[in-house]
Amino acid sequence: MSIHAQARGDGAALRTVLRSVGQIVLQRHAGTGACLVAALALCDLRLACAALLGATVANVCAVLAGHADNAIRDGLAGFNGALAALAAFTLIGDTPTATAVALLAATASAWIGAALAPRLARAGLSVYSTPCLIASWVWLALRAGASAHGPMPAPTHALTALTTLIDPDWAAAPQTAWFGLRALAGILSGVAQTEFASGAPAGLLVVTGLALSSRRAAAFALLGAALASGLELACGTPLSYFDAGLTGFNGALAALATLALGTRTAICATMLAAALHLAAAHYGLPAMTAPFVLASWCAHGTARMLGGRPRNTAEARAAKYEPQETQTPPRAGATPTAIR
After folding, report:
1. Which DSSP string corresponds to 155-213?
2. Per the domain annotation, does 65 fall within a domain?
């Protein structure tokens, strides 16, 4: 093999891995994946490595399982592995243990996805982050007490980081401006949490990555995070959860998954995802991204029964193929330490 051929092969492999990470926010774009990896590295270098590790393992399993080449190239075979690895590294502090669990969970998610995808496709539904959820719930159940001890949110981190970037003297700003910045920081943190990242700067990177693929997708992610957060705050969710981004990530993902069905449908899916997230938090369940998955299935199932069709062909293809993740993978519960 020539050097040029090997370089092309390595470049194609890297693009596949980055597309897998980008599919966490339902985008088939290597640039989106690169921005998401950068956002994770900004929070914790371990998380960036976890996403790349999980995506690589899942793609290798997909090749061995005989997945369609186009699905692998588009990142559809790897994003659940990335999410599963992110969940492991987010919820397990010990690096060797987290690495072992991440490898097993990424492998399991790849095989689970291979079994689920054709069955769900017959019903006109996407897999989304279901394989990651199943794999993560299994090891959480085996690891006693893990579901109740995720990372503690940092209520002021997102606001401090964002306002410091905008104006070092933010503390002297008028109350209205301060609340506006806090709201923006919380919404951006919600977008960041779609991949287990945290903080407004990470959220800005995720939004940038979305905009590289679709400016409409970036706008819908922000809208979804804002609407879901507003509903959860109105229902009594503590502000510390909003500041940490735990109230918005399911809404952001639901909006991204249903944007091809129109704005009204996306809003309905977003609000349903927030309601399901509230219900899971009330009962102390480790829902992670399950509310987004269920809300998106309901929206697409209803549109299918009513004969609705996505307005944009490209968006329709993205909605059909994509998931998640995150983080598939992450979080909100009855206590500040509950996982999303």
Report:
1. TTHHHHHHHHHH-TTGGGS-HHHHHHHHHHHHHHHHHHGGGT--SHHHHHHHHHHHHHH
2. yes
